[in-house]
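Researcher: Following up on the earlier apo prediction. This time include the ligand. It's adenosine-5'-triphosphate, with the SMILES given after the sequence.
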Amino acid sequence: MTTVLNVDSVSRSFGDRAVLKNVSFAVGGGKLTGFVGANGAGKTTTMRIILGVLAADSGEVTLGGKPLTREIRQRFGYMPEERGLYPKMTVHDQIVYLGRLHGLSSSAAEERTGKLLERLGLGERAGEKLEKLSLGNQQRAQVAAALVHDPEVLVLDEPFSGLDPIAVETMVEVLRDRAASGAPVLFSSHQLELVERLCDDLVIIADGGIRAAGDRATLRAQHAEPRYQMLVDTDAGWLRDQPGVELIDLDGARAVFTLDAGFDDQKVLLAALERGPVRSFGPVVPTLTEIFREVVR
Ligand SMILES: Nc1ncnc2c1ncn2[C@@H]1O[C@H](COP(=O)(O)OP(=O)(O)OP(=O)(O)O)[C@@H](O)[C@H]1O
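Model: Understood. Below is the ligand-bound prediction.
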């Protein structure tokens, strides 16, 4: 059975500045949910409230319908924006220590730490002080810290920033595994292509308010008008004067356009064929970047 983490009408101000305004969204168990928004949109503040590091002015966060208590939050894994491992302690020792803080026995903490560091490619670095590691490896250690107690919920602030592509893939696998065990996994990121590839669900925040939330396919259907892409052999500039067509992007022989409501796409295809070979023609699904632009503007 999976559990849902629910953020319900959460508001928070700093002084007279409303930073979160009635923020509501759900993070489904067993899923990876990407949390995206521009700088200062309110992602970190929302995550801090979920973790109880910061209080909401109103609204609440629940897990499986129950308000969060200290005991429930003990079972969360958190990777905060400010990171915060001990630079002078060895990687191994601090992950074990954090496991113990979360209630693991000393042998369980040792075992989990060994496995996790190995999995994250840090096995050979386990005995080094954190400050001696590269930034990317420190980041991996942060993930190990968030995961050591097999958390029932994972909340990660920018876990992919600064990672090389191979480290990203390792991290993705680790997060997918955690989600596969039924845990809700929420992470923020500015890397929209990555979020698009990785996530089951998305939450888009702008200026302290949720602009869109839900599964990728639904968001795509709701938030971006259908568009077509065509590739021909010669310049496709004639599309500008084609009735029913609005040209969005033209790069020589490649054109992206929308059609007036009810306009038959086959008429455009025929018009293109009259001018020469057509290499590809069809509707394209909008990318997350396009949806993002549309909903936050
Ligand atoms: N403790 C605080 N006191 C005053 N203002 C704050 C505080 N914490 C956050 N803010 C403000 O709240 C707004 C939202 O910040 P937050 O860090 O949640 O954004 P974010 O979406 O995580 O941004 P980024 O992508 O840059 O990390 C910002 O304008 C920030 O300056």
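Model: The domain at 5-75+151-218 is CATH 3.40.50.300 (Rossmann fold).
Researcher: Noted. I'll compare it with the apo version next.
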